[in-house]
């Protein structure tokens, strides 16, 4: 909370000083009157009671402030009955009543204080217009100032509450963003391992099973290079000779690993951003790996289609498809979908049990629709 308690303390001390001055003035002026002793005793009692309330308020005990101010007002009325020199304490009392009483009893107290003040002046000095207007306007002004102060205080408190909520909301958003960043980075690292080193390791196993040690050694060297690149925090390189040639090589490698795979390309080639080329390559690698490992496919086809402003990739196999209860649950499919989403494209999987699988990705280029 940023509530400025110093403002409250200054206002309270201002009220204490004003009360003490007005009470002292009353004591001095009434000291020559016939009931000076009674006036002095009454002033001492009122001062003592005021001190009790002031100390309690300073210590934060304000639960009985209403009773305190009512007793104080009654004591003041008694003083006014002895001497009208204490009438001017009415301003301080009006402020206290408006501050510590609920509105209906505060209004009654303000009216009562005004009446006592007017009657006190009238009883000793006779009726005068000034004797009515003076106390009335003074008390009304004290009430208005107190009300304005109360409203400003409530506004400040409401502002502080909203600021606290804003700070809390900001902290919660920062924490959520941090958690989202951690999850995104974990997903990115998982994707790099799965689509990079993981692909090569799988190829090594398949090539060894197919008794192709030379090809397995080449894949192992590629896996080592991929691991070093990954540890250095370097993004996977885009194909130096273009994505079309890279996809053609992938189909050749897939055929060598036991899945006859064809490559077809349609449309006039267009310049593709690095992230789009890398996404096309990784999706093809993952789709062909899934066709070999999980779909028991006998053939597969990779088709790359260039259209104005976008490129399409289709990887089709004739395997067993994907069971409905596992569609989209694997890390490979999630990684492919994530790569396409990062390129602001569209990704679909058409997999009918027993009817093969079609992986389709549409990636915008240029304007990135």
TrEMBL record:
Cellular compartments per GO CC: cytoplasm; membrane
InterPro entries assigned: HATPase_C_sf, HATPase_dom, His_kinase_dom, Sensor_HK_TwoCompSys, Sig_transdc_His_kin-like_C, Sig_transdc_His_kin_sub3_dim/P, Sig_transdc_His_kinase_ChrS
One term of GO molecular function: phosphorelay sensor kinase activity
Domain Histidine kinase, first and last residues per copy: 280-367
Family matches, as CDD domains: HATPase_UhpB-NarQ-NarX-like
Coiled-coil region(s): 152-179
Annotated transmembrane regions: 12-30, 36-58, 65-80, 86-101, 106-123, 129-149
Catalytic activity: ATP + protein L-histidine = ADP + protein N-phospho-L-histidine
Enzyme Commission code: 2.7.13.3
Function: Member of the two-component regulatory system NreB/NreC involved in the control of dissimilatory nitrate/nitrite reduction in response to oxygen. NreB functions as a direct oxygen sensor histidine kinase which is autophosphorylated, in the absence of oxygen, probably at the conserved histidine residue, and transfers its phosphate group probably to a conserved aspartate residue of NreC. NreB/NreC activates the expression of the nitrate (narGHJI) and nitrite (nir) reductase operons, as well as the putative nitrate transporter gene narT.
Record-given protein name: Oxygen sensor histidine kinase NreB
Gene source species: Gordonia phthalatica
